[in-house]
């Protein structure tokens, strides 16, 4: 095995690993650990509060600028710092960017190594226009086949499903009579559907997740979610992490994912299934790629289907559910998939012409070497 030097660029907002919210940062942390475990050199560029071996390029105070006019200038500043840091890192085989936009442009402009960018969200028209403009400079990876439907014309080089931290999760056959909905609270996640499904099923519901910090989400919570929260039949936990999260996931009878949008992945669904807890999800977005029908959960079309699936969850073997999921979505599987893609991108050294060949042959060899870049 050839040891590679991979530079992983995390977003500037949350530490790696996150201390609460931060799905991308969790995936980045798992990827870095798995790559190092496979014997590769990894340099992580990230925000303050990240693990000690990270190169910190963004202070913790920047987090307060998310969603404000200052956000774009912070992104540009981070991109400039990333570009400077890359110049000082010596030989780099691959730059793996998880930011996009300004940082993606900066890593490509540095022209120090091939740049792979993982697209972590949906792809509205404005994003599509940007990615199209970068298609000759960067190499794009999707986190699900479903995500590609938002931009099928982009020359994707592969799909790599996100991993979950299987070591932090527990598996138990001792289920308790409650349903869990683990997601930020906003219209896209459909908590009002989970409330109705739980009520009609006669089950207690735990809503775990913060209210998204936008007016639309606050209004949604006030009108359709908060009135149902009574601390008994419907419980709300604003931020859950660590051992508390692992316990909630492993002891739930099922996790409800009443998606109201084409979600490109779904870490909470995978975490639940890796904990031996079946998922009942709307059959949209990436859910059909993640859920193995009858083995790790059930796909439904509406709230009626969700209610009908609740009693069927007792047929799911928790141990088999966890085994299948951990094999598919463990960090080593994710790292192996990315390593295969890295190898297709790494610039090959130019072929040096022998003294017996003429100048024309030497020039051709140099051009061939550039063509491999």
UniProtKB/TrEMBL annotation:
CDD domains: GT4_AviGT4-like
Segments forming domain Glycosyl transferase family: 174-303
TM annotation in the entry: none
UniProt xrefs under SUPFAM superfamilies: UDP-Glycosyltransferase/glycogen phosphorylase (SSF53756)
The Glycosyltransferase subfamily 4-like N-terminal domain, residue ranges: 21-167
Domain of life the protein comes from: Bacteria
Recorded GO MF terms: glycosyltransferase activity
PANTHER family cross-referenced by the UniProt entry: SULFOQUINOVOSYL TRANSFERASE SQD2, TRANSFERASE
Protein name: Glycosyltransferase
Organism name: Candidatus Aeolococcus gillhamiae
């Amino acid at each position: 095995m050839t040891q590679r030097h991979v530079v992983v660029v995390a977003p500037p907002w949350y530490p790696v690993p996150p201390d609460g919210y931060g799905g991308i940062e969790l995936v980045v942390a798992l990827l870095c650990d798995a790559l190092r475990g496979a014997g590769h050199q990894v340099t992580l560029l990230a925000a303050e509060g990240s693990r000690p071996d990270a190169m910190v390029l963004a202070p913790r105070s920047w987090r307060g600028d998310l969603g404000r006019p200052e956000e774009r200038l912070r992104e540009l500043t981070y991109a400039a710092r990333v570009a400077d840091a890359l110049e000082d890192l010596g030989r780099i085989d691959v730059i793996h960017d998880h930011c996009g936009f300004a940082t993606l442009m900066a890593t490509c402009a540095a022209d120090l190594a091939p740049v792979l960018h993982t697209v972590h969200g949906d792809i509205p028209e404005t994003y599509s226009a940007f990615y199209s403009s970068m298609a000759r400079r960067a190499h794009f990876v999707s986190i699900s086949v479903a995500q590609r439907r938002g931009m099928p014309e982009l020359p994707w080089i592969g799909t790599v499903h996100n991993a979950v931290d299987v070591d932090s999760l527990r598996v138990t056959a001792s289920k308790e009579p409650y349903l869990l909905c683990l997601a930020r609270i906003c219209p896209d996640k459909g908590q009002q559907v989970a409330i109705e499904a739980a009520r009609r099923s006669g089950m207690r519901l735990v809503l775990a997740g913060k209210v998204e910090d936008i007016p639309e989400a606050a209004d949604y919570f006030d009108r359709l979610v908060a009135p149902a929260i009574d601390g008994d039949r419907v419980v709300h936990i604003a931020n859950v992490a660590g051992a508390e999260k692992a316990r909630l996931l492993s002891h739930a009878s099922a996790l409800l994912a009443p998606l109201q949008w084409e979600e490109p992945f779904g870490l909470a669904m995978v975490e639940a299934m890796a904990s031996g807890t079946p998922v009942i999800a709307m059959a949209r977005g990436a859910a059909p790629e993640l859920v193995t029908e009858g083995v790790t959960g059930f796909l439904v079309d509406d709230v009626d289907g969700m209610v009908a699936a609740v009693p069927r969850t007792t047929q799911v073997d928790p141990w088999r559910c966890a085994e299948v999921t951990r094999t598919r979505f463990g960090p080593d599987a994710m790292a192996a998939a990315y390593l295969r893609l890295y190898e297709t991108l790494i610039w090959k050294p130019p072929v040096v012409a022998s003294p017996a060949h003429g100048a024309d042959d030497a020039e051709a060899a140099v051009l061939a070497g550039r063509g491999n870049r």
